[in-house]
Amino acid sequence: MTTKSKPVVPAEQEIRYWMRTPAITVNLAAPLSEALALMREHDIRRLPVVVDTGELRGIITQGDIRGADVMRVAGLDPVDIAQALRNVKVYEVMTENPIAVTPETGLREAALLMIENKIGGLPVIDEHKRVIGIITESDLFEALVQQLESHPHF
Q1: CB burial readout 91-105, b (16+ within 10 A) else e
Q2: pLDDT value for 139
Q3: pLDDT under 50 in the chain at which residues?
Q4: CA distance linking residue 16 with residue 143, whole number of Å
Q5: Residue 3 CB-half CA count within 13 A
Q6: Cβ atoms within 10 A of the Cβ of 88, count?
Q7: C-alpha to C-alpha distance for 88 and 29, rounded to whole angstroms
């Protein structure tokens, strides 16, 4: 019986060196207003969604919440919109069981996952599925720029 071994990735190309940590997360029972406030406060577009133990359950993006902008443009009262954001819970609009990577995942593999699935970021989890970081398109561009600077013949 042969097992397919994972390709060996040079250490500096592992996610652990490029991910943002600690990841800003939101509890799945939190109201959308809290998720939106966290995104604005930290200037981020996505939040891993966790349970109390820190275990990954989903991901929520600005796009998932953007309905609030639509409601405002449609002429709904800002007070009604704010109330809706407080009443709707994160778990009601999040993407469940998102694709995640580990700190040992290679940058190339992470980039391919994002391209193939048309997503802009991946939660990074430990062996207990607890969120320990996040890797985004921006982080991958930063890694690419550093690689190009250190190997100008590319």
Answers
A1: bebbeeebebbebeb
A2: 92
A3: 1-3
A4: 12
A5: 2
A6: 17
A7: 9
Those residues with Cβ within 8 angstroms of residue 105's Cβ, 6 or more apart along the chain or in another chain: 9, 14, 15, 124
Residue 58 CA to residue 80 CA, distance in Å, equals 27
Question: How many C-beta atoms surround the C-beta of residue 123 within 10 A?
Answer: 26
Cis peptide before 22 (omega within 30 of 0): yes
Number of Cβ within a 10 Å radius of residue 139: 20
CB–CB of 54/131 below 8 Å?
yes
Position 149 scores a pLDDT of: 83
Residues 48 and 54: their CA atoms lie apart, in Å, by 10
> What is the predicted pLDDT for the residue at 80?
79
Amino acid at 133: G
Residue 20 CA to residue 28 CA, distance in Å, equals 21
Amino acid of residue 5: S
